């Protein structure tokens, strides 16, 4: 909802996406009523940390967090001055500066929580971003560093963002102690390409990374064997890599996880993952990840549900032409994201059945007219 020149929302849901849309569109946003009915109202530590990271990446951004007092910052990387978490924030966006940055993430969320919004902003920065994040690299809530490297970044290549795009996993960090470190490198572009991705193809290969830190390395092999016991029934081209880190590179806590990725003949990527839990055998973790991958494949489309928002945003920012993409049913988060895009950019999507002749197909065709977004920050460099 827009009130004057400031776009207003209530509640903490879709927090990251609304901040990203504000910075890209240049329109201020006010989010109030953040967990106002909760026993512990206001922003959580990871949300405050995200605001601090956006401060570092941008230049001239003004963020106000209000409850009884207010914290105001103008694009500095200083620490937060207020002790109470705010139930309302106001963000007045500056320009995306980029450059070399280091950020320590709180242990309540993994680095994936912070990387997802940065990936949406990084191609439109003034200088190429070289971001080092420290904290937990894999957890149950957000995309792991492995999936971002193998699945999220290839989605950017669909829009012509490829040279120099990289995510390096320097150290693993399992919850609760963390201790991981990743480095994200992203080039800048003047404009992203229009997407036309409507052929889903057939699954041709499955790849996976099974990693274990500060536990018996055999756990990694046990997960691979369990995953193969199911996947071998469907396709022969399967390669699951065992990635065991030792010493300082293994972080501060024991843990293990399995990340899976399926690729089709038209370069469609589906992914899933499962992480270790107390008292759960490695075989059960592997079966959980494998079934999740098969479930994701069964939903169809050219983009899996974890990456719908990223692809939709880049379609909106594309050149002034009609972009089309075949996807599965939208998640509730995607539906809200489409509404938020309408608020910021005035762009509407046409969503129609991808195969009208096949009533049993649930695939949908998403199409929109690109805004012709040009990276003005780059021209200032």
TrEMBL record:
PROSITE patterns associated with the record: RTC
Entry superkingdom: Eukaryota
Stretches assigned to the RNA 3'-terminal phosphate cyclase domain: 8-351
Domain RNA 3'-terminal phosphate cyclase insert span(s) in chain numbering: 199-298
Keywords noted in UniProt: Nucleus, Ribosome biogenesis
Stretches of the chain forming a coiled coil according to its record: none
Transmembrane segments: none
Cellular localization per UniProt: Nucleus, Nucleolus
Family, similarity comment: Belongs to the RNA 3'-terminal cyclase family. Type 2 subfamily.
NCBIfam families given in the database record: 18S_RNA_Rcl1p
Official protein name in the record: 18S rRNA biogenesis protein
The species this protein was found in: Lentinula boryana
């Amino acid at each position: 909802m827009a009130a004057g020149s400031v776009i207003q929302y209530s509640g903490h849901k879709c927090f990251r996406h609304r901040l990203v849309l504000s910075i890209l569109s240049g329109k201020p946003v006010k989010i109030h009523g953040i967990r106002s009915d909760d026993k512990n109202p206001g922003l959580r530590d990871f949300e405050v940390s995200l605001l601090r990271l956006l401060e570092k990446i941008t230049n001239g951004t003004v963020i106000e967090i209000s409850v009884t007092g207010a914290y105001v910052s103008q694009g500095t990387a200083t620490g937060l001055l207020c002790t109470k978490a705010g139930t309302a924030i106001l963000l007045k966006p500056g320009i995306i500066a980029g450059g070399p940055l280091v950020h320590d993430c709180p242990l309540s969320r993994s680095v994936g929580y912070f990387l997802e919004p940065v990936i949406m902003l990084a191609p439109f920065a003034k200088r190429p971003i070289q971001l080092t994040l420290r904290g937990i690299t894999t957890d149950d809530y957000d995309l792991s560093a492995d999936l971002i490297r193998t699945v999220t970044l290839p989605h950017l290549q669909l829009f012509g963002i490829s040279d120099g795009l990289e995510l390096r996993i320097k150290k693993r960090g399992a919850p609760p102690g963390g201790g991981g470190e990743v480095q994200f490198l992203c080039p800048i572009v003047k404009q992203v390409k229009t997407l036309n991705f409507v052929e889903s193809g057939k699954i041709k290969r499955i790849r996976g990374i099974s990693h274990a830190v500060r536990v018996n390395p055999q756990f990694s092999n046990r997960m691979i064997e369990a995953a193969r016991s199911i996947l071998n029934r469907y396709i022969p081209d399967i390669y699951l890599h065992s990635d065991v880190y030792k010493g300082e590179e293994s972080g501060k806590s024991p843990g293990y996880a399995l990340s899976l990725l399926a690729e089709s003949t038209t370069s469609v990527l589906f992914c899933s993952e499962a992480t270790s839990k107390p008292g759960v055998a490695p075989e059960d973790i592997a079966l959980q990840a494998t079934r999740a991958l098969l479930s994701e494949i069964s939903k169809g489309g050219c983009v899996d549900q974890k990456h719908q928002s990223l692809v939709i945003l880049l379609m909106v920012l594309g050149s002034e032409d009609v972009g089309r993409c075949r996807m599965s049913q939208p998640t509730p988060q995607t539906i809200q994201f489409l509404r938020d895009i309408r608020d910021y950019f005035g762009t509407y999507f046409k969503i129609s059945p991808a195969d009208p002749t096949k009533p049993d197909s649930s695939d949908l065709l998403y199409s929109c007219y690109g805004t012709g977004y040009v990276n003005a920050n780059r021209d200032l460099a």
